[in-house]
Amino acid sequence: MTETGRIRETRGNLAIIVPEKSSACFGCMNLECRSGGGTITAENPKNLPISVSQIVEVETSGIAGQALTAFLPPILGFMAGFVSIRLFFPETGEGAAAFTGIFLLFASAFAVYRVRKKFPAKNKFFITKIMD
């Protein structure tokens, strides 16, 4: 995810950035901004010459991993439910297998939700370039 923001404060190799409102903000429902009081703490790995009030581009990594951990367990839950009911009860029909699969799909999705609620993902932000 890439977005832009204005540097409010610098602390060594870190910068406190106020993000500009964009479509990415709607995508995450401002979750990162609200948790940090409307700001993002970003590292400057390229040692760019940053200063207060500059507009910079900020990027985060790990989005693919977060998507994988969000979508993979429900899919595996459905597959496990669909297959396991057939292994343990071979005389059951497609309806029972589908119901068990859907039940485990929702159960695993709820488990992912509860785990992410208790242990939210820690995104690291990096300054990639200076915009002005």
Concise structural overview:
With 132 residues, this protein is an alpha+beta fold.
Structure report:
- The chain has two domains: 2-63 and 122-130, OB fold (Dihydrolipoamide Acetyltransferase, E2P); 64-118, no CATH class.
- The chain has four helices and five strands.
- It has helices at residues 23-28, 31-35, 63-88, 94-118, and strands at 2-11, 14-19, 40-43, 55-60, 125-130.
- Strands 1-2-3-5-4 form a five-stranded mixed beta barrel.
- A hairpin with a 2-residue loop joins β1 and β2 (14-19).
- The radius of gyration is 21 Å and the shape is rod-shaped.
Keyword list:
five-stranded mixed β-barrel, rod-shaped, 132 residues, 5 strands, OB fold (Dihydrolipoamide Acetyltransferase, E2P), alpha+beta
Topology:
Layout: E1 2-11, E2 14-19, H1 23-28, H2 31-35, E3 40-43, E4 55-60, H3 63-88, H4 94-118, E5 125-130
Parallel strand pairs: 3-5
Antiparallel strand pairs: 1-2, 1-4, 2-3, 4-5
Helix pairs in contact: 3-4
